[in-house]
Amino acid sequence: METKSAVTILAALAQDTRLAIYRLLVQQGSEGLAVGQIGERLAVANATLSFHLKELSHAGLILARQEGRFIYYSANYEQMNALLGFLTENCCRGEACAPASNVSPCDGAC
Fold first, then answer.
1. What is the 3-state secondary structure (H, E, C) of the chain?
2. Where is the HTH arsR-type domain (predicted)?
3. Per-residue pLDDT at 79 exceeds 90
4. Closest Cα partner for 26 from 51, 57, 65, 62?
5. How many C-beta atoms lie closer than 10 Å to residue 27's C-beta?
6. Are 41 and 24 contacting, i.e. CB atoms less than 8 angstroms apart?
7. Could you tell me which of 59, 62, 70 has the C-alpha nearest to residue 21?
8. Mean pLDDT for the chain?
9. Is the pTM of this model over 0.85?
10. For the chain, N or C: smaller number of CB within 10 Å?
């Protein structure tokens, strides 16, 4: 991952509502949620939700799929893991880092 991509991703997450949306979608796994469900769970108006989903999508953090009349969004775990790798690639002076006990890697099946 390049620095410019990391900055775009981090900027997308640097807003309360977008961070809440992203965390909700990460928790839902690969199935994701329909737009209406996201709005209901987070009490976000449709127009506002649409704006924030667009920003997260532009950063590559979420993926959309259409099923019938509904659009479902899910976290893009590949992008999330790439960002985590970028942020930690030079940690611990180049030596293997001991993983934090409360953090587990996510392969999209969380």
1. CCHHHHHHHHHHHCCHHHHHHHHHHHHHHHHCEEHHHHHHHHCCCHHHHHHHHHHHHHCCCEEEEEECCEEEEEECHHHHHHHHHHHHCCHHHHCCCCCCCCCCCCCCCC
2. 1-95
3. yes
4. 62
5. 10
6. yes
7. 62
8. 88
9. no
10. C
